[in-house]
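User: Just a sanity check before I run the rest of the batch. Below are the structure tokens for the first item. I only need the designed sequence back.
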């Protein structure tokens, strides 16, 4: 289809899928299931597979993920030439596949690991495993070494994530019209928050210095400094005291902080992450409805559905371990603790 027809068709389809998702008011349906068999029936219309309950958890998670992936691939298929920014969500899975293969190579696995099937959108030459250089030859990651070493794996993964982020930011900055501002709004906050969480984890849990933390942050300009649109906010919070609640009173993201409970208060990165993640589905759904018939709205839909997938995985774990539904939703951050 041409772009406008594809957008209209895909937006309508996404709206229908969103209306039946297990988000917000319908989320409790996931956590109130008494067994994995019941949870399967809540999620899917086909018969429960004849596997032991111990394996049913994996089957639910696998099917939920595959359903979401196929839904997004079917959206991409409606476009004659999907834009790079629509394809960016698929590239994230491509990165996961490369990381899995790097891990396999470093650990001497003779066969490639199981990868996410991206159909015609995959750019990897899986048959070249374990030669990473050949695997990635026609991709944006063709700079990766032929034989990565285990000691370099963490740094290589960080470089891949950073390279991807900067390439996406470059595409956003080159986009035109109203969509440019929408893409910025959609991508900026997520990466700002990821940087803040990572910075505070390194500060609170590992007592790393400001300089050490800055070296591990994402950025989209020449360096991670206060002027960078992604790194700036995280660097700014490093000037706040993690044990002085007063320092955070005028902070933009104050609503996600753990409650003040007296003089022993300390910034809790895990709490902050849960509370922020719990807010994302509402934010993405609101974005989707506020900006109809746009490509950024389709990515916002996909991000909302990814949060739903996270909820499904939490519900599977809670049901398997017989965790109280309220406690499970609190642990997810879906309801107040």
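Assistant: Here's the designed sequence for the first item:
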């Amino acid at each position: 289809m041409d772009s406008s027809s594809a957008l209209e068709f895909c937006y309508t389809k996404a709206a229908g899928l969103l209306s039946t998702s297990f988000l917000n008011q319908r989320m409790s349906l996931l956590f109130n299931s008494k067994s994995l068999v019941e949870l399967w029936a809540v999620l899917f219309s086909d018969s429960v597979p004849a596997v032991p309950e111990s394996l049913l958890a994996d089957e639910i998670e696998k099917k939920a993920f595959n359903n979401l992936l196929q839904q997004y691939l079917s959206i991409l298929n409606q476009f004659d030439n999907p834009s790079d920014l629509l394809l960016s969500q698929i590239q994230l899975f491509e990165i996961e596949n490369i990381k899995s293969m790097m891990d396999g190579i470093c650990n001497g696995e003779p066969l490639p690991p199981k990868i996410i099937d991206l159909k015609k959108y995959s750019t990897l030459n899986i048959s070249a495993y374990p030669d990473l250089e050949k695997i990635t030859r026609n991709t944006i990651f063709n700079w990766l070494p032929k034989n990565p070493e285990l000691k370099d794996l963490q740094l290589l993964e960080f470089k891949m994530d950073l390279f991807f982020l900067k390439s996406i930011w470059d595409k956003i900055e080159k986009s035109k019209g109203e969509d440019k501002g929408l893409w910025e709004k959609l991508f900026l906050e997520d990466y700002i928050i990821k940087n803040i969480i990572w910075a505070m984890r390194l500060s609170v849990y590992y007592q790393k210095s400001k300089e050490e933390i800055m070296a591990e942050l994402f950025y989209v300009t020449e360096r991670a400094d206060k002027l960078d649109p992604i790194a700036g906010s995280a660097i700014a919070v490093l000037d706040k005291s993690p044990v002085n609640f007063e320092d955070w009173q005028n902070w933009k993201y104050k609503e996600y902080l753990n409650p003040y409970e007296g003089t022993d208060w300390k910034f809790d990165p895990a709490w902050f992450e849960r509370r922020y993640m719990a807010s994302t589905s509402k934010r993405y759904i609101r974005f989707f409805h506020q900006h109809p018939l746009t490509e950024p709205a389709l990515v916002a839909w996909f991000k909302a559905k990814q949060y739903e997938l996270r909820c499904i995985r939490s519900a599977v774990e809670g049901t398997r371990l017989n965790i109280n539904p309220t406690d499970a939703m609190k642990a997810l951050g879906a309801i107040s603790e």
